Request: fold
Amino acid sequence: MKNFLISLLAVLFGLLAGALLMAITGHNPLEGFSYLLEGGLKNPERIGNTLATATPLILTGLSVAFAFRTGLFNIGAAGQMLIGGFCATAVGLSFDMARPLLLLVMVLVGMLGGALWALIPGILKAKFNVHEVVSTIMMNWIAYWTIYYVVPAYFKGEFLETESRRLPETATLKWKLLSDIFGGSYINLGLIIALVFVFIVGFIINKTTLGYELKAVGYNRHAAEYAGIAVNRGIILSMLISGGLAGLAGVVQYAGNASSIQIGILPSQGYDGIAVALLGANTPIGVMLSAVFFGLLYSGRGFMSAMTDIPPEISDSIIAIVIYFAATSILIERLLRRFKKPLSEKSKDPAGGKKVQS
Amino acid sequence: MENVVEMINIRKEFPGVVANDNITLTLRKGEIHALLGENGAGKSTLMSILFGMYQPDRGLIKINGKETKISNPNVANDLGIGMVHQHFKLVDIFTVTENIILGSEPRKMGILDVKKAAKRIEELSKHYGLNVDPYAKIQDISVGMQQRVEILKMLYRNADVLIFDEPTAVLTPQEIEELMKIMKNLISEGKSIILITHKLKEIKAVADRCTVIRRGKLIGTVDVATTSEETMAEMMVGRQVSFKVNKYESRPGEVILRLDNVSVKSNRKHMGLKNFSLEVRAGEIVGIAGVEGNGQTELVEAITGLRGIESGDIYFKGEKINHLSIRKRIENGIGHIPEDRQKRGLVLDYSLEENVILEVYNRKPFSSRGLLNRAAIRNYASKIIESFDVRSGQGAISIARSLSGGNQQKLIIGREIELDPSLLIAVQPTRGLDVGSIEYIHRRLVEHRDKGKAVLLISLELDEIMNLADRIAVVNNGELVGVLDSSEATENKIGLMMAGVKRMEEGK
Reply:
């Protein structure tokens, strides 16, 4: 509850700062925000696109949040996502199967790819105490250059050297019914998958012995070790799951929102996942909400800059400021306490008086 | 005599607890006033209010007879109130002087004037007999000396009222004696001292008056000279306390734990435990006596599996366990009350109920098929919390971090005893606890023995070992010096052995 309030305030401050920026640069903030909102929510299609934009963010957010809950800072979601997306694309381009089976295999292979990409930093951390921040960043670049080589070499597109062949419609997560409901938006099955995983991750973290173990390792590995929990196994497992989620983000991005994979790009959703997790206070529901908020800003900014001459960078700035406030949540907490104090003092006194008399 | 501090009818509530309920405390000029209470009785809260870290819900504070509102520690500083915290707040790589002036650096034309400060610190140090080198680095001086730096910090800021928060918890016996002398020096120079403690011996040694609080309520203020330790203990705990543990002769049964020539490396990579052999039988308490760092940690970690052994064999219930995993050892019946409760014993950000199942979460009824059973866990936790009198704000769902140290310790001990282990390893089980808790924990350990279980007690407090153990093994420099029967053990004998002097009949 407190975390929710803090995130909400962070968002509020971010929007206020954005308004201030618009005003300073000589634009009307109300106008700007109304176009920003319209761009994300004006009609079913735009709502669908907002949700589709949020989909990979939900998954990378879950990836980072899950690792974080177990004491690991996985900033390699971008690389894991790229590899996951690539593995799924490779399967989709190479095999011809019944569609449900093909999609299932693509999802599984994508998760596996991301998981393996995170496994290496996990093992390095567990066996040699190599800090995961360093090794996951390095893995990002290994992923980047692997794709850079493999895609043109084996899956070169018909027209462009810099991207893969397009996946046939049946080998993507596109779903006509859903798309039609949202007025032809590029929303796809990925959203359903992401929502299912919000539930699954929440379940693992809160209800299972696995979640209990991993959180114990994250909070205090000495105590976990003392209690006989296999700490190294926990670290590796946690990285595997985190990487799997990021890999899945790659599947929904490259075989859902898009239908080909580009070289020379580390997907920004990987890094945004950190911000999403932070704003979502590392809880699955929080991650979902904050991903949708990010999706809204991302999909609304184009419309805003088309309809006004407010530069689209304003919405990036808003995101940056929101992250800043979410990261410095301690400041907001302090602020909250200051606001709360006079209230609670007033309400406490008479109650305290009564207790003494009784 | 004039009062320098008067705290009148102070009340402070936290969610779920009344930490201070109508407490009144007056400090006279030039006295040492002890504030006595069990862990979690509300001593620290009361002093935090005086130091401006908390605001009282009700009541008023008078300093030198004038009503004052202390809204933050800076105000307290300006009023001449200084606090020596239990955990020092010093920068390791700074010198004594740099630490002391931190926050009020003297300047000469905008440039830091360390020399002037150092000179003043030297004078203060000499005046109060503190004997501190102003240019020494914190990391190079002893804990006792660091504490004096904290005291100097207060004096440098012209504090007249000094609050000592359990100052002896971290000191060796010699350092404690010196601290007592320093405190007496301070009052003879006109300072006034509030001493927060639960050690009756120390109160008897230095304090003039003593205010006792229990569960947030004021029990009374007594004159130390005319009040016995027993009376004060009774006031603090609310019932009669025995300092002596009542127990029958032990009836040792089969051998539960056998160490055969075990050698273990220490963190510094040399042998911390050398060719160590020992037997612990069912139904007896074996105490390990020794000065800190003489192989105790290595011994405990080798038995529990936290550290590998270099050579030798460890047998548990007749079975060799050299390479058994930690979990397997726990499942086979080795319980462990760890030395460092916050590092090893608890996941501080977990609730009490989550901590209670730390070793058994994967067993029925706490989980089945990988799913936790919250109801069973809650039940189990409530049982331990109740039977071990763990006091917390919100019961089983309180976060472990929010508990006082003593209550954290009781939770760990409850958890381990509830496992009903065949061998209970208790390392410093009563460190930092008040007499009431100590008495209680000692009784539970003896009870565990009387159930026919083996107990291995490692303690740095000789009194505790002599009181509890049926046999006493003395270690020095990682070697077993000898094993004494409690009937033949005297403080003198053990003391000599702790220093490495072997028994006559074993002499070379």
User: Anything to note?
Assistant: The interface with chain A takes residues 11, 13, 18, 21-22, 57-58, 304, 306, 325-331, 336, 338, 343-350, 354, 358-359, 361-362, 367, 370-372 of chain B (CB under 8 Å). Residues 504-508 of chain B have pLDDT under 50 and may be disordered. The longest strand of chain B covers residues 3-14.
